[in-house]
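TL;DR need structure tokens for one chain.
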Amino acid sequence: MTQKFTSADTSINSAKLPKTFTFVKNWKPFSENLDYGGGKFDNATEYLAKFNVENFVYDPFNRTKEHNDKVLAHFQYGHGADTITCNNVLNVIDSTEEIKKVISHCTQLLHPAGTAYFKIYEGDKSGQGKQTKQDCYQRNEKADAYIPLIQAVFAEVARHGDIIVASGPIAQ
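>> reply
TL;DR here they are.
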């Protein structure tokens, strides 16, 4: 990824679980979730273990290259993730082209019958992106702004508040 701001310091949920994990009511036991941009904490992994779901965190800015390479290799050789969670990731990327790359990467890592969940932090909802602190950025866009980008690579897309649910990855 070649974005100006890594936004690595936005990984702050050491105790608070991202909303997406409780939004999903039907975690399938013995499935695999890829937490794309999942940060440096493992509370989501611990939560999903209660449902017998194995969680894999991929985060190029908060996990080691070796860790990320292992996660990517797991999903690229033979099968994709049953679910992907991407929490507050798209809204901290300053480049629309980089956002498209992230969404596209999710389609490549998702099982064809899988579901992706994109949680969007809307900030002040002004649509005016800005640097929020050292090496951090916030787009301040409403969740609706991301729907066309997700629809470009997923056949089915639905918005549920600040969570966008996508399925049917389109081959690229």
